[in-house]
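ok so i was messing around last nite and threw this chain in just to see what happens. nothing serious, just curious
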Amino acid sequence: MTRLLPLLTLVLALTAPGVHAFETRAKSAFILDQTTGTVLMHKNADTPLPPASMSKLMTLYVAFEAIRDGRLSLAEKLPVSKHSMSYGGSTMFLDTTDRVTVEDLLRGIIVLSGNDACAVIAEALSPDGTEAGFARYMTQRAQKMGMTNSTFVNSNGWPAAGHRMSMRDLALLARRLIEDFPEYYPMFAETEFKFDGRAPQNTQNRNPLLKLGIGADGLKTGHTTAAGYGLVGSAAQGDRRVIFVISGLDSAQARAQEAEAIVNWAFRQFSQKELVKSGFEVARADVWMGNVDSVGLTPAHDVSTLIPVLSEDGVKAEVIYNGPLRAPVKKGDEVGTLIFSPEGLPETSVPLVAMEDVAKGGFVPRLKTVSTLLLTRLQQGPEGAL
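result:
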């Protein structure tokens, strides 16, 4: 394994005071720059906790999948069972005489946080027709999506033993909702939904960020006694989008203050920078038995990353490859990795590819290579001998 600093290092030098991690009052939190995939902050992010209504996002994801697959339609009307109407808390005030369109149910979940609406969707899509069966399917689907710390007992986050999600899982789910279903995501920014005029006390979206003009456009609040006050939030400014999850706050006011502070911090303290374009030679790799003794390396694609705006050390870069490379080498072959280390942020990496073909050398170049190797090992003494 060969490690070397590329020519790029000097180009990336920046100077200014260092970045500081966000100090959150939340008991658990996760902040992700969706545009670059950079984790900006995490706190107890992998601990399974009661998610309250934030787990409704999984019910929505499964419903959107069903619509995309043709198993459900927005105009379809679904019946309301006694079990569905039995839920208290936030509801659409549905009863067994209702048949409600899927589109209204989705808005009832997103805007009104309807526990009853979730149960109606759940029973319609459940493998066995029950909400419990739907919850088991939710758990299986979440596992396949990479949410390894999520277990569902119901469709809506109603307090139940074993109903748990981690903050990292909720952020992953939020990202999938935004990326997989852009046609439905605008619903999350709706601030009001008046369903049938029957619930004037429950028409407003509880997301405290939507009317602040800071780019917030989703996703879901949550509150129970066990979970405290939480929020899965997202905001977009310019070309960047930030996703964050907080939980365990002691009031709705604290949740609103913390969420706004996180959005402001994420956008003000970090900026996206283009570091290097594909086609720029960042280093040269030694080649074994080739018609030339080295080949240029370039990133497989343009590279941009998140950088603290007040960075003292900037971004350090390192090239890693198994060398020397053995000829022949084809242009575009992936032969190494370029690793960037922004100050205070996780490493990011990009594949390095060969910039040109390197054919096998003829007899004379190959003889020269072997002779050089033998001479080097002989000079090293017994420990370096063949």
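not much to say yet. The two ends are 20 Å apart (CA to CA).
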